Amino acid sequence: MNISPEEATQALREIEASRSTMRTAIQSHRGHYYLWLWGLIWMATSAINWLGNQNPWIAPGLCGVGLVLTFAIAFLQGRQLRARVDKKFVAVCIAALAFGYIAWPIILGPPHSYKAAFGFGMVVFMQLYVIGGIWFDNYLLWVGIAVTVLTLASLVFFPGLFWAFTLLCGATLFGTGYYIRYFWR
């Protein structure tokens, strides 16, 4: 398939227009609430685990609360922001989660420790941030990469500080939400 220079130029203009629209929508319509919410949930889970309560139901329980609050935010803001859902993006995210939580554990086997399981879950979700960054805006890409690097570094090089690092990962999400809300233009 050959594409003409005019078609390529038009496609690049459409991509830039999409990015610009997405950036404005996120800043104007409180996209930072999601980052604040998940940053707080992440920090709470990490702090609880750091204090020695490594109950395997804490993270899923807090994530369940986070999902309910995420849908509540989406519902309330759906009145302010009318945008079509990008079905391809949703499909890619569902596929990434399915591979991450179904296919890979079957191939690799169960995690060898609670920390490994927690780190694995973090990296799977950061994959969605990277995909969102590639699809929509670079800040999600860099947040996903930064949190993944922190997580992997803590598991490999600083296992004794794993929970401190995961607390920092949550702070990274929360801080990005703060940046988007107050400084992003």
Q: What would you say this structure looks like, in words?
A:
This protein is mainly α and 185 residues long. The radius of gyration is 18 Å and the shape is globular. It is built from seven helices and no strands.
Question: Care to give the gist of this entry?
Answer:
This protein is an all-alpha fold. It is built from seven helices and no strands. It is globular and about 60 Å long.
Q: Ranges with pLDDT <50 over ≥5 residues?
A: none
Oligomer: single chain
Distance between the termini: 38 Å
Proportion of strand residues: under 5%
Helix content: over 70%
Q: Which of globular, elongated, flat, extended, rod-shaped describes the shape?
A: globular
Average predicted local confidence, pLDDT: 84
Which key features would you list for this structure?
79% helix, 185 residues, globular
